[in-house]
Amino acid sequence: MKIFLSLDNKCLSEDKISSGILGGTERFFLLLEKMLLEIGYKVDTTIKSKSEIYDIAIHSNVKSKEVKSKKHVCWAGSFHTDASTEEYDLIIANSKHMLQSINKPGIVIPAYYDPEILDFLTDDYRERTIITTSNPNRHLVDTLKVCDELNKKEITYTWLLTGGNKLYGEHFREHFKVPDRPEINYLGVLDRPNQLQLLASSHIYCYPNLSDQSETLCVSAIEATVLGLPVIVPRKEPFLEVLPDNPYFASDINEFSEILQVLLPMNRKKSYLCDTEKYKASKIIPLLVQELTNLI
After folding, report:
1. pLDDT tier at 271, thresholds 50, 70, 90
2. Radius of gyration (Cα) for the chain, nearest Å?
3. Is 179 in the same domain as 289?
4. Residue 139: domain span
5. Residue 240: phi, psi to the nearest 5?
6. Which of 67, 124, 237, 278 would be 57's cystine partner, CB 3.0–4.6 Å?
7. Do 90 and 164 lie in a common domain?
8. How many domains does the chain have?
């Protein structure tokens, strides 16, 4: 079987791969390429010949018009996908929430957490350190409001922020500005090892994604759970779908603040952790490979 993986080159480059600064979809496609090659399939990520016709082309969110293929698959993991308007032989959404927004038949195969994340597991963490590794463009406005509530109560904490649109490429603009506040430490876009080390050594993962509606899965919340952090996320989709047994959902700024006030004095080990077994790469990739085989 000849497969073409079509990932937007504006978001993936050799420099980004070598630096380890990659988004979730980019990491997914790189691992998928590796595993398909191990199975014995021929896999291309660049067009070698204009006359080449592939058995399957897998497009990341948006169809590449340059690829000739017998079957076209859309991996829909972002709301900018063209899956609603373009013709595909198969649409794969990363959540039911995402598939419902497309409003076309398809299947759900969630994104996975990287196998190497387990290398960063540690019981050594910094007490009263809150972390958010999701894009600040999606939550900073609400995060600052949660900080205001904690500060009114004179709660001691440090809130670490990482990420941003620069993760996707230098030409992407940021739409947030982190204020100069002693309780907030914005560390920018980090490479994977530094990002995972920072996450694993923090006390609580908190993502006040209340105003934003662009999340389709939230791998960072899954990663935090895998690494043993209590996770506080909004009581809305896709979070309710992705982490159904998570005990820490919040509906508003006050509830985020109240949960943090309970968890900050608590030993991290005593916090209830939800199940992320279904998000292992060893479970996700075979499901996708089977669907591709069925398509042919």
Report:
1. low
2. 20
3. no
4. 115-277
5. -65, -35
6. 67
7. no
8. 2
Q: What is the pTM of this model?
A: 0.93
Quick one: 174 and 287 in the same domain? no
Residue type, 84: S
pLDDT band at 180 (very low <50, low <70, confident <90, very high): very high
C-beta atoms surrounding 65 within 10 Å? 7
With the CA atoms of 148, 204, 162 and 179 taken in that order, what torsion angle do they form, in degrees rounded to the nearest 10? 10
Residue 49 has pLDDT above 70, yes or no: yes
Q: 151: domain CATH number?
A: 3.40.50.2000
Contact 93, 200 (CB under 8 A): no
Q: Are residues 171 and 259 in the same domain?
A: yes
My answer on whether 63 and 193 are in the same domain is: no
Instruction: Work out the pLDDT band at 9, boundaries 50, 70, 90.
Output: low
Query: Are residues 266 and 128 part of one domain?
Result: yes
Question: Do 43 and 72 reside in the same domain of the chain?
Answer: yes
What DSSP assignment string belongs to 77-139? -STT--TTTS--SEEEESSHHHHHHHTS--EE----B-GGGGGG--S---TTEEEE-S-GGGT
| pLDDT one-digit tens code per residue, 217-263 | 999 999 999 999 999 999 999 999 999 989 999 999 999 999 999 99
Asked whether residue 178 falls in the same domain as residue 103, the answer is: no
